[in-house]
Amino acid sequence: xxxxxxxxxxxxxxxxxxxxxxxxxxxxxxxxxxxxxxxxxxxxxxxxxxxxxxxxxxxxxxxxxxxxxxxxxxxxxxxxxxxxxxxxxxxxxxxxxxxxxxxxxxxxxxxxxxxxxxxxxxxxxxxxxxxxxxxxxxxxxxxxxxxxxxxxxxxxxxxxxxxxxxxxxxxxxxxxxxxxxxxxxxxxxxxxxxxxxxxxxxxxxxxxxxxxxxxxxxxxxxxxxxxxxxxxxxxxxxxxxxxxxxxxxxxxxxxxxxxxxxxxxxxxxxxxxxxxxxxxxxxxxxxxxxxxxxxxxxxxxxxxxxxxxxxxxxxxxxxxxxxxxxxxxxxxxxxxxxxxxxxxxxxxxxxxxxxxxxxxxxxxxxxxxxxxxxxxxxxxxxxxxxxxxxxxxxxxxxxxxxxxxxxxxxxxxxxxxxxxxxxxxxxxxxxxxxxxxxxxxxxxxxxxxxxxxxxxxxxxxxxxxxx
Amino acid sequence: xxxxxxxxxxxxxxxxxxxxxxxxxxxxxxxxxxxxxxxxxxxxxxxxxxxxxxxxxxxxxxxxxxxxxxxxxxxxxxxxxxxxxxxxxxxxxxxxxxxxxxxxxxxxxxxxxxxxxxxxxxxxxxxxxxxxxxxxxxxxxxxxxxxxxxxxxxxxxxxxxxxxxxxxxxxxxxxxxxxxxxxxxxxxxxxxxxxxxxxxxxxxxxxxxxxxxxxxxxxxxxxxxxxxxxxxxxxxxxxxxxxxxxxxxxxxxxxxxxxxxxxxxxxxxxxxxxxxxxxxxxxxxxxxxxxxxxxxxxxxxxxxxxxxxxxxxxxxxxxxxxxxxxxxxxxxxxxxxxxxxxxxxxxxxxxxxxx
Lengths: 467, 355
Ligand code: HDD
Ligand code: HEM
Ligand code: HEM
What we know:
By secondary structure, chain A is mostly helical. Helices cover about 70% and strands about 5% of the residues of chain A. Chain B has a two-stranded antiparallel ribbon.
């Protein structure tokens, strides 16, 4: 928790640049949200895909079976393209920091910038080794090639570590003092290692495995439904699905941890998750319905007594703070946050169940599930986990509003005074639509190309030359 | 500490100008290569040379941004809010360039390749222009401290910005031609060596002429910058840059491309350093000195330590990448872009065996 004097001063931070208030705040927020919503799904692949590819290559090195190599090689090409798109969308985000939120950067850049400095190093290493890995197939020795994949896996983790440290800090600011509305005495390492970093990092890291695992598995599940059951398609299904299925149940546990941390440090956000108007003991959990601002209650929801207290504090009678602890101006948009939160939980629970079915059949019966419905569910799980991912971020980010730095600086004070953001916004939408179409086009083309191209002869059809 | 951080910025800018700039320059030659058939071989060479390195080269830009916003936050906020328009267009251009380039490798018909190629090539010209114009706005003292306090338009639509924008484009083209000539030689493609050699010599002369003529533009438009560039350390750097630039031309003439890479880079580095010396002690001329702009010591120290530590890992990694590239171990088979619309990406079995 923040200490009391801190809060009193803290509320008065205004930008050092001293711009006036900005009519285009909404457009700025939308641009930021849009760019993140494009970047984050792509980087899930940067986080988790390299590990799957490397696992596949490891199988090839152990068994010598070129099927695995064909898969690893094809995936590495997909990873390279997604990485390129991750790079350009990430660059947009870095520009947007300055273009949209100059006051925020000018006031706090010295506090949290360090994390991005480290992140830059991490991106560098990622870019270097991904190039070596992808262009080095059959050109480096097998062992060297495998080893060049390892830095990519590590930097997938360290890169997300650093951005998440910044986001955690925005939600749980520390490592500076405020005097007369000015930020002083930055302690960058303290800012980096804040209390929200750990759960957000774990949650996001697992999300990366869930999203990319289910999406890749979905491609092969659909092939299986169309009757392709050879070793190539089977391996392409089992590896990513196993990664995702191991992550999904863990995600529920980490999500619970996230919820408890939020309850402790950001009570208003938690109250928004639930649309809880007043502080009470033994708070119920309400599923569905919508929050009526005027009457200050959730309408048409299903109430489960005491569950919220149990979830948030692991005690059915615990006291949960409501929206009434802050003035209406300091509350986030309740319905957006609440709807996003409930969607994430719903999908998260469903994914964990699906994962359990798979793991159970695999461990007990040593085979894949037979039902066609299972494969249809796997196909649906990819897009659904993407929805959960975006919803999770809406929960975190919109739930933090109206603050850009929680209880220290308002988003409205962070924004640029430059004009014409709506034009930029429209332009950006067009660009992203084009980008999405292009990437979709490309991945479709790649997935249609027959695997033979990769191995110089169909697997099993004659000698697969050269290996 | 502030000086060390400024040193990082100069290092990053130079590396980006030399490496990233050459990638943009490759796009310039792609744009001007002529019709699909005539330009096919040239474009194939561009695709082949850039593929393994452009992402790593691009990270230098991120590096510069990050250092500036951490070490000089007020300057960062002032620059980005005032120069929002050129920066926005540069950012959009970066999306187009990266995506179009990555996708072109997968194009299946000549029309796809053409559309993507045009997008890639056009944005390769626009991005350095807008980034150069942004620097021009800073260098000519048009950024005021504050949230969008400087003029949103004249801060980048002015003679100095236009000049630096144009120089950025031409210098990139020059560097690219030098590198591509070397790459073509390694690949054993004498016709392309000749083509790029001619382009290198031509663009080198143009770059030198524009830079010299540009001094007069700067003199009219941004007198303090001109004075800085024509006296003391600034002048020394300008002379050094001119020598290195001229030397590069001579080396290209004599087909010593390996050494030309180095001198070309030195010419760019000298001019970047010269600019910094010319506006010393200001970060934003007449508005904000380096010391006023610097973040607090705790931040600067932490940043310097972590970047230095990072370079311990980064240095060998970069060395490994460029070693593999320069030895040709990551080379893909050369393939004129119009010939067959197969990817020029990772080791397809249909391509030549490793050397
Ligand atoms: C595949 C995606 C996915 C899935 C299945 C879940 N989540 Fe999640 N969730 C995210 C992806 C995500 C995320 C990566 O989008 C967020 C945004 C910020 C963060 O740290 O993770 C997030 C945030 C987030 C937060 C807010 C954290 C904060 O504001 O600091 C909570 C309380 C939960 N989640 C809780 C859960 C629970 C209880 C889940 C299971 C039933 C769950 N999430 C499944
Ligand atoms: C300069 C720093 C940042 C600012 C000013 C900022 C501000 C915002 C704002 C205003 C929104 C839109 C909320 C709304 O629509 O009401 C948003 C959304 C979001 N932000 Fe942040 N944010 C910043 C940094 C980050 C970081 C570092 C992350 C992640 C690591 C992040 C992740 C997100 C996500 C995922 C969304 C929601 C996307 C969506 O709505 O689909 N933000 N942010
Ligand atoms: C506002 C926030 C963000 C900014 C400014 C940002 C910035 C960037 C930049 C500049 C790159 C390109 C690096 C390069 O040139 O190689 C990048 C890539 C990446 N980002 Fe982000 N990012 C943000 C949010 C996130 C989030 C929320 C995550 C997830 C944890 C994330 C994870 C990654 C990863 C793993 C990459 C590597 C590229 C890839 O694998 O596709 N970033 N980001």
